[in-house]
Amino acid sequence: MASKIPFFLDPFGIFEAVKNELNPFQNLLKAPEDNKDNFRLDVDMRFLNELIRREVLDESENLLNLDAFAREGKIIVRGEYHTGNYRLARLFKVYEVLFNVDLVPVWVKSNQVRFRISSSLLRNKKKRKFDFVKWIAEILPYHKRIIIQELADLYPNQLSLTKLKYEIKLNLNYYLEKANLSPDAVKVHKVIVETDRLVFYVRSTIVLRSLVDFFGSQVLSVTDLPKEFSSKALR
C-alpha cells in the first residue's frame, strides 16, 4: 500500500491530491469506473430473417416455415411445424401446427442475453370448430416451448433454455469467436428491440470490422457513440 503524506506536511491535502493524479497505479485503479459504451450495433432483422430461414429450414425436418422479426420491445418468431410421430398429435389427427412466440430481452451478462417468452400461441393449421391444439397447449404449457426447444437443439452453441420455465439464452460469444474477436475485449451492456432492429450497446477495446464482415453490412452496422453516452440511461 502506498504511503500517505503526513498531515503536518500537507494539512490541506493538496500534495496528496497531486500525488494521486501523477500516480499511474492510482489511475489504473480508477479505470474500471469508466464503464460507458462506445459502440452501437444494429442488427437488421429483415435481412437476418432471410439467413435464418435458409439455414434453419434446411437443418430441421419438422420446421416447415419460420420467420423472426422485430417489433418495439420484442422479437416475434412465427411459423409452421410438422408434428411428426408425436403420439398425442397422431391420436387426434393433427399433422401441422402454426406457432407464434414473443421474446422480450430481460438482461445481458457476460455476453449472454436472456429472453423471456412473454406470450406463445400454438394452434392447428387445419381450421376446426374446436381447436384441440390450442386447448391442450393451455392445459399443458410445456407444449409452448416445443418450437424454442427445437431451435435450441439445432443450435446448442448459440441457444439454450434456462432453468426458468419461459426463458431462452442467446450466447453472443459464439459469434464473436466466429469473427475472430476476443469476448474479453467486447462486452455487451444492453439489448434493445426496435422495429425491424435488434440493438446492442457495446464496450469494446478493439475494432469490430470483422464482425460486420462475418454477418454482412446489410445485416449488421456499427456506430461510434459519443464519449459521454451511457446505455444505463436507456430504458
Account of the protein in words:
- Helix content is 28%, strand content 34%.
- With 235 residues, the chain is of the alpha+beta class.
- A six-stranded antiparallel sheet has the order 2-3-4-5-7-6, with helices on both faces. The chain has a four-stranded antiparallel sheet with strand order 8-9-1-10.
Short synopsis of the structure:
This protein is of the alpha+beta class. The chain has helices at 14-22, 24-30, 45-59, 87-91, 132-139, 146-154, 173-178, 209-215, and strands at residues 39-44, 63-71, 74-82, 96-109, 112-124, 159-161, 167-171, 186-194, 197-204, 220-224.
Category by helix and strand content: alpha+beta
Q: What's the quaternary structure here?
A: single chain
User: Which blocks of ≥5 consecutive residues have pLDDT under 50?
Assistant: 20-35
Termini distance? Answer: 41 Å
Secondary-structure element pattern, one letter each: HHEHEEHEEHHEEHEEHE
- Biggest sheet strand line-up: 2-3-4-5-7-6
Number of helical segments with 4 or more residues: 8
Q: How much is the radius of gyration in Å? A: 24 Å
Mean pLDDT: 81
* SS elements, strand count: 10
Q: Which overall shape is indicated by the principal axes computed on the Cα atoms?
A: elongated
Helix fraction, binned, reads 25-40%
Largest sheet: 6 strands, antiparallel
What fraction strand? 25-35%
